[in-house]
Amino acid sequence: MTFALDVLIPHYCDPDGLKRSLDSVAEQTWRGRMRVIVVDDGSPDHDALAAQTHCDAFAATTPFAVLFERNPKNLGRPRTRNRLLDLTDATHVAWLDAGDIWYPDKTARQFAHLDSLTAQGVDISSVWVTCTYDWEQHGKARTLSQRVGGDQVLELLVGDHFRAYLWTLLGTAEAFRIAGRFDERLPRLQDLDYFLRFVRGGGRIETAPGRRALCRYFKSDIGRNAAEVHACYKLILAKNAPAISRYPRALSSKLHYKANRLASRFAYSNGDRIGAARYLAEAALGSPRHALLVARNVLRSRLRAGG
Amino acid sequence: MSLKVHVAVGARPLLGPDAVPGDALGALIGANIAPVPATWAVPIPGRQTHDFLLEPEGPAIAIMGRSLVRDFGARDEPLLIFSHLLQDHGDEWAEMLSGLAGAVREHGAEPVFVLHGVTLFEAPALAQLLAWMHGLGLEATIGTEAAQPQPGSPLDVALRRNLALDRMATLLPGTARNLGLRWREDADLWAPLLDWLAAARGVDIDHEASDDALRELGRQFLISRLGPDAK
Fold it and tell me: A63 and B74 in contact by Cβ < 8 A?
């Protein structure tokens, strides 16, 4: 039996989060032949067992199929995601990270949008459909829409209004083949690299219409290694240097500032104040013009807030 | 793999011009039967008709064929709602249904159409429709001879309103002439009439309303179209 949709979920040490994700998949209003594929990335036995139990319960209580696989040891997210890609054979693919949730009409709205594009004569074999999402961090949530218009390489690199989040996506299996496999040198930020490869390879990302969020992301910086994040960001910038060189030099400066600023944030969130200060200093020294611009904007917004 | 495609049909004035709530119609016909949303073609949440498949241009039939196979099967069986099929099964319908069956087959499924008659009063003549579909080479069976909504349910109200609107259509020309207006048949009149009825709070109509009551509603609607200076 060919499935119409494979939902790909990497899992590591978060069976409760996986259950939350599976519950949200069970509530999808879309009624098609769906299969959920979960690859556990070498979690300790008790977590892996709990994850498998949740998958079994999902299969027993929903009309959807489940495939649960386990890495023999912790191989990291890119290799786990590549294993998920190897296991899929459905006509369409969607991603979800254990712990995040879809709202009930996510898949229905995204499939409807693919159909709408087809009706307009668009070749959907090179299209991913993203969506508006809720972003929750420190107990606070905000709704963020994806601005997919314009130069998508530039927008992804800048990342202010268009962000590379795999769990927002649904597309044909053919479209996902454009991006190839996840770069296994990138334990962090492999989403951004994957998105950039897709767009630079001729793919186009569309967004399901509507201002309402279709999924919810629970953001946490805790436990994420700042040096690793920094190295991954630098590698992505190096891989995309030819594309970045087509833009004004200010962009390059901004992106290098962002790499350090991001690492600083991760270091701070994990209690490494010295590391955070070091990355912040590198950001300011490496991209002084951009650092001044940011400082000026922060100062202005604080003055405005103060009346 | 065979794919049951449920088809709801009723007397033409019953299922149109105001598309009925598809979920209610699906629940009336049976459990685990759900209308095909087709939001890519008809972006009106919850109110479905699939008459748009008759439009000759565009890839609607191909998309619908794919959607029937792809979007259904794990949880519910799909329901299509055709408001005109019972009366007007002509060349266009034959072409559409044969094309739809072909589109479903292209995706590896063999369609079996299951006909359901929707009624308030008399059972629709499904046997004739069934014979016609067999004549087209389509596999079809009768599922429900005469499904009837619970009196007072939203579906019942919607069907009765459609019947009343059908009667209004016959009364409007005379009402227009009485107002000194020239009357011209206008298929696009339904949308503003429905909007007007929805906007006029407290105004609802039932097929049992008297002709005079319907004429008065029609008169108010026509005056609203003419503007504040009209008598």
Answer: yes
